[in-house]
Amino acid sequence: MGILFIILLATFIVSLGSLIGIFTLRLQEERLSKILIFLVALSAGALLGGAFLHLMPEALEGLSGSAVFTITLLSFILFFFIEKVLHWHHCHKGHCDIHAFGYLNLAGDAIHNFIDGVIIAAAFLVDIKLGLATSLAVALHEIPQEISDYGVLLYSGFSKYKALWANFMVALTAILGGVAGYFLATELESALPYLLAFAAGSFIYISTSDLIPEIRKEEDLKKSIKSFGVFLFGVLLMFATKLLDF
Q1: By CB distance 3.0 to 4.6 Å, which of 61, 68, 160, 178 could disulfide with 7?
Q2: 141 and 242 Cβ atoms separated by less than 8 Å
Q3: 50-70 pLDDT per residue, tens
Q4: Nearest to 245 by CA among 134, 123, 148
Q5: Is the pLDDT of residue 20 over 50?
Q6: For the chain, which residues make up each domain, given as ranges?
Q7: Between 196 and 52, whose confidence is greater?
Q8: Number of Cβ within a 10 Å radius of residue 86
Q9: Strand ranges (DSSP E) for the chain?
Q10: What's the Cα-to-Cα distance from 246 to each of 31, 59, 125, 143, rounded to whole Å?
Q11: Neighbours of 183 (CB within 10 A)
Q12: Closest CA to 117 of 19, 22, 195, 206
């Protein structure tokens, strides 16, 4: 049970990274609105980079290319369908305070965090030192992702406090993944590639369907160039975190 406690502690500490948005709580709404487009650009780049540079390559280690691409495509289609249903449910009467892609991002991130928890648990079951190193790698990898998720929620209509709370609650799925990884290590190992490909499809959908179109709406040339630069930075950030992968 000692290892289980360490796994729970490690996944909880990693989950605390979702609270990074707390640094924006003191920002005035006017100032926050000015930087929001850049948070969206960072989010779009981080989600795309995460899907193509992390999730899909990791899925390819356990599945054929055809299977990974098929699952990713089916996930993309499923999230498109879900968003249409959510949009109709919330907005068919002309009232839409929170855009559907905010909820979709939470769903995709929950899967991603659950997988992180499983990976941390598996590392600790092999060796405590490997578990600690993996936990640190996951935590550092999650920082840009959590900034990304927080930006998506703000732009979709969540208040700062609601976005912070929702992001934290979803981050706690890493703990569920840690527990599942501890008790079901062998069974979950075969399912991980499928979950990774599924999460990749959700990230690609949110980035290309909801976030990039919002960036393109910016008419100011200087601001457009800056937001594109931030988008590229988001992609490069995900590329840099590959150095932390094991």
Answers
A1: 178
A2: no
A3: 789 887 888 898 889 899 999
A4: 134
A5: yes
A6: 39-244
A7: 52
A8: 18
A9: none
A10: 39, 14, 15, 18
A11: 11
A12: 195
